[in-house]
Structure formats: C-alpha cells, structure tokens
Write a structure and sequence with these properties.
Blueprint (H helix, E strand, L loop, with lengths): L28 H13 L6 E4 L6 H10 L8 E5 L5 H9 E2 L11 E2 L1 H4 L4 E5 L6 H13 L1 E3 L6 E3 L3 E6 L3 H6 L5 H7 L2 E4 L10 H16 L5 E2 L1 H9 L5 H15 L4 E2 L6 H4 L14 H16 L6 H20 L4 H8 L3 H10 L7 H4 L2
Helix pairs in contact: 5-7, 8-10, 12-13, 13-14, 14-15
Length: 364
Amino acid sequence: MVHDSAGDHHRPAAESDEFSLPGVIGTSSVIREVARVTRRVAPSRACVLIVGETGTGKELISRAVHDLSPRLSGPYVRVNCGALSESLLESELFGHVKGSFTSAHEGRTGRFEAAHAGSIFLDEINSTSPKLQVKLLRVLQEGEFERVGDTKTIKVDTRFIAATNRDLIDEIGAGRFREDLYYRLNVVPIYLPALRERRDDIPRLVSFFLKRYGDQNRREVRTVHREAMRLLTEHDWPGNIRELQNYIERAVILGEGPELTADQLPPQLRGVAFPRPVRVRGGDMAALTSEMVRQGLAAAGPGATNLYDRVVGQVERELIGQVLASCDHVQIKAAARLGINRNTLHKKLTEFKIDSPSPGETGD
C-alpha cells in the first residue's frame, strides 16, 4: 500500500470505485475492504482509529480519510506522538504561552489550533502518557483546551484520526492506556493487513517501486527474474511495505542490467546470512564448533550449492579468528588450542585472509 506520488497529497480523489483508493497499490480482498471502509467513513465527522504493524501504510490511509472528506480544503496536520517526550508533546499539541517553562521564550500555537477546520493525525497514540490522554479526551469530547501555562480556553473544530501499532486492549489491561479514550477514538476502526497477509499484491508493489526508483536514479529495470519474485513473495516482511520499498530501492541502485535478479536481494531473503559472533569461553572448543556448524548450516540455506565446503569454510574461518583473538593473537598458543601446528595455522591465515600481527608483535 503506497501513494503513487509524494507531491499528490492535495489533489482531490478522482476514483469512485468503493473498493479502491487513489494511490493504493493492490487488489487483494483485504485491501479492497480497507478501501471500502475508508471511503464510507471519510465523509463523516467520526473519529477513525487506524490499527496496523509498522510500515503497513497507516499515514497513507489517514491522508485518504482527509482527502475524501469535506475537510479537503482545510489543513492536514500530522504528529508522531512517539517521537517526543511528554512535556514536549504537550506543548506541540496544545501550544504554550511565553514563560510557561524554562525554554518558552515566546508563545507558540499548537497543532490542534493549526488543524482547525481540518484534520489532525496522531500517529503512535499508544505512546502518550495517561496525563496527556486526559487532555486528549477533553479535546475529543468538548473540542476545547488551554495552552500550556495559560487559563484561556481555546475552541477548535478538528477531525481526529489516530493510529497505533499496538493492541490498545492489551495496553488498557497493562494500565498504559485509558479505556474511556479508547472507546472515544475507536468509533470506526480500520485494520491494515501486514504484507505477509496480502502476498498477492507483492508483484504489483514490486513493479511500482521498480518504476519509482528507476526513474529517480535514471536506471531502467524492466523485469524481475522468477527466482527473485519467488523470494520476494515468500518472505514474511516483518518491516512490511517499508522494508520491501527499501530492498527494491537498494536493488535498483546497486544492480546491473534490465532485470532484478535474486543475487541483488539482501542475504536474509536468499537464506544466506553471516554467522553471529560466537565468543570463546574457557576454551570450550567443542561447544564453539557445534554452534558454528549450526549457524553455518542455517546460513547456507536449503538451496545452496557445495553445501559441505561452504559450511566448513565458513565455520573454520570464524573459529580461527575467534581463537586467535582469545589468545591475544599469539599464534603458537592459538595453534595449540586448535590442535594444529604453526605452519598449518599460518597457511589458514593466508587462505582466509585473516589479519594477524607479526610474530614480533605477538610475543611469538
């Protein structure tokens, strides 16, 4: 789910199909339902709560709610509640008067005032403090508030759109979110599916991002190799569309030729990843070797060629490096711990291109 142009935010929505949204890529049933609910709620005055994992496109849907509403000509104001401390967020939302706190050298208009006659999007609303939630509830119910350090009540007419990547029912149970605020916000919830729940849309998204980043970087990538598309559609995408977007941009920039191939994708998509560092403790070589073999097999992946040679080479290189470090790069000690002679160790260091201080520097 992506917007088709960063500069199109203020154009009226032209599409009338109730199962689609301008700029939203995808035709899966879950995305069509998101579009249907968004179109139905947008013309109303109701609060909207957008729920979805990070990277699923919550701000895009928030923008669509605004653009499809009678408030299109009014301001659209976005606030990331998770990016600011409680005191800064309170000032950001409600404004403050001069001298209300140490660094308040002049008065400031808050985001709620700025969003008057328009919409305000409160992203990551789950990160707000209980104290701030009380003030938010008042604005929702009464449409009024006071600036920080002031007693004058300000009235606003602002459409509330909030988003969360957490289950607010769980947050209520943990005492981190007010139940009354939840029910006031949750008038019309819109649930955004994770990318792994809409795999049929991945080819369309890939084509979209290839075109976008190809144009931006003057690179033409017209096709996607079958194996690359298989890897893309089978990945679980913990970072959702944002993760896919980054990988395609990287492939366009670093790749060569008119086709996106599997080797241009990150190692984790191809089942190949460099083993995590394993620390030597108390000379436990058996445990270290066992762990390195386990990691090497996992990193090689089921489709790897020359599996034995790759795993053994990967394990051996890491093992020698770890043992050398544990022996302060004294090669005689490292060779003894590894159970090989000094000449063999020297050959391995050359073969694996492992840097080691000269004998004079190591006390050999």
